Structures are given as structure tokens and as C-alpha cells.
């Protein structure tokens, strides 16, 4: 992905997202309707009140949701996410809570979740660290520290080890600098052709150049070695480092295809994570890649996997067939 873009800073009708600003937006009306839905007796998750929540929160963009959340807090004296979690349960509650978080908060939350509990979700960490710009990651780190009172870099080091930990930290702190295509090609070629491949230059180059530059380097390497870069990585490296470098190359080569393949895992947390994270940025592109990859539209695939109000919420984020 283009490391210079910062879609969090400006989301509008000109984006490739599926969720856009609602023209007839009225925060006070929406907050009152949400309050009424949450105050109904019994479970909200399977009722018409849940449909009301979904309709409001998926038909406006995140900036408008923040205004609704603040209006709700002024009315009720508590956070909207708290109210949602008290009234709604399960996967629907997780999805609605994700929509109410700011994009930065949600990415920080996903990183925290990937490291929480027993075991670490390496692929979850890589998805965010490989697809976000230096500017975004800097802001995500700040939010992570503010929300969880912990240092993201230190947590990454604590949850991983060796060259994989070095790769994650380099991704977190990546700064794009200008390099020479031929020089970088030679450096990477020499590092991978050693009896024991040296990951150092691969970590340095792949986390400090823009995607256009790296694609030229990859083209050169593939012409030289007569095999795809990911295949060369498969042969030269092992374990989590191999996973990390392969994922990073995939994100540089075809970022929307990578995200489509994440969706195709059909794991609820991954599906919701990708869809919410990219709903105002480039989900239209991910939908196209999903159709090309699977032969099925994302809209149809969701209907085969989910049901009820939860399905309605996901379809509303997806928006339409391709």
C-alpha cells in the first residue's frame, strides 16, 4: 500500500469506501433513537431495536458516529459503547462497538486483541502493521498508550522474538526514505543467496521504501531468480519471519488481494476487522479482489456465513453486490 496516504485524515465521497457521510444527518435525533432502542426490555440483539441500531450506525460515517456518541454521552452521562455492550451481546455487540470507535482506536484495539491472552495472533499483527502508513502507525501507537497504558513497541517485543520481533518493530517505526532500485536489488539478492540467508537487509529495505520502489526491486529479483519473490522467501527463511516477509511482500504487491484473502478465512473477527477498518477507505477495491479471488461476491459470501441482524449489519457495511 502507498505508505504516504493517510485515509484516516480525510474520508469523503471521493474515497473507495462503502460507507460515506449521511446527507440528512441529525445527531440529536439519532442519539435519541439509539437511547430508546437500548432502553427496551429484553434482549436487543434479535429485536427491531437491534435493527434500529444497525440502521443508524451503518448509514453514517465515523466522523458522524463520533458526534452521535458525544451527543449520547451528553444525554445519558455514559459512553455509547458502554450502553451498546449492556444491551447487545455476542458478535453483533463487537461489530457495533467497532463502528463506534474512531478508526485509530479500532486499530489499536485490534493490535491489543492480537496480543491478549494465551498465544499471539501473528497474522493479526501483520495485517495492520503491513498495511498502515508511518503516519497512521505513529497515531495508533499514541492511542494504544493512551487507551491501554502500555507501550505498543514494548508489547510487540514481549509477545514475539528474534528476527520476527525486529520485523514488527521496524514496521511499526517505518520511515520511507529514498533508495536506488539497483542497489536495493543487489543487497537483497546477496542477502538471500548466502548459505544462510541474512534477514537483516530484507527487514531494512522492505520497511523503509515506498511500494512503487519496492515493486521495481521485486521485478528485478524475479527476473534474476526466475521465481516469485514469495517463493524465494519460502525457500530462504522459516517460521514467523517467513510469514512476516511473505505477508509484507503480498501487501506491497497486491494489498487488496491480501485483504480479500483475509476475508476468505471466514473467521468472524477477521471479517469484521477488515470490513470496519476499510469501510471508508478502500473496501470497494477489496470487494473486487474478493470476487476475482473466490468467484463469489463478498455480499453473497456474507449471506452464506452469517444470519439475522448481524448479517444485516455486515451487508450494510458491504453495501451491494459486485
Automatic annotation (TrEMBL):
<dbReference type="GO" id="GO:0001786">
    <property type="term" value="F:phosphatidylserine binding"/>
</dbReference>
<comment type="similarity">
    <text>Belongs to the annexin family.</text>
</comment>
<dbReference type="Pfam" id="PF00191">
    <property type="entry name" value="Annexin"/>
</dbReference>
<keyword id="KW-0106">Calcium</keyword>
<keyword id="KW-0041">Annexin</keyword>
<keyword id="KW-0677">Repeat</keyword>
<dbReference type="GO" id="GO:0012506">
    <property type="term" value="C:vesicle membrane"/>
</dbReference>
<keyword id="KW-0111">Calcium/phospholipid-binding</keyword>
<dbReference type="GO" id="GO:0005886">
    <property type="term" value="C:plasma membrane"/>
</dbReference>
<dbReference type="InterPro" id="IPR018252">
    <property type="entry name" value="Annexin_repeat_CS"/>
</dbReference>
<dbReference type="GO" id="GO:0005737">
    <property type="term" value="C:cytoplasm"/>
</dbReference>
<dbReference type="GO" id="GO:0005544">
    <property type="term" value="F:calcium-dependent phospholipid binding"/>
</dbReference>
<dbReference type="GO" id="GO:0005509">
    <property type="term" value="F:calcium ion binding"/>
</dbReference>
<dbReference type="InterPro" id="IPR018502">
    <property type="entry name" value="Annexin_repeat"/>
</dbReference>
<dbReference type="GO" id="GO:0005634">
    <property type="term" value="C:nucleus"/>
</dbReference>
<dbReference type="InterPro" id="IPR001464">
    <property type="entry name" value="Annexin"/>
</dbReference>
<protein>
    <recommendedName>
        <fullName>Annexin</fullName>
    </recommendedName>
</protein>
<dbReference type="InterPro" id="IPR037104">
    <property type="entry name" value="Annexin_sf"/>
</dbReference>
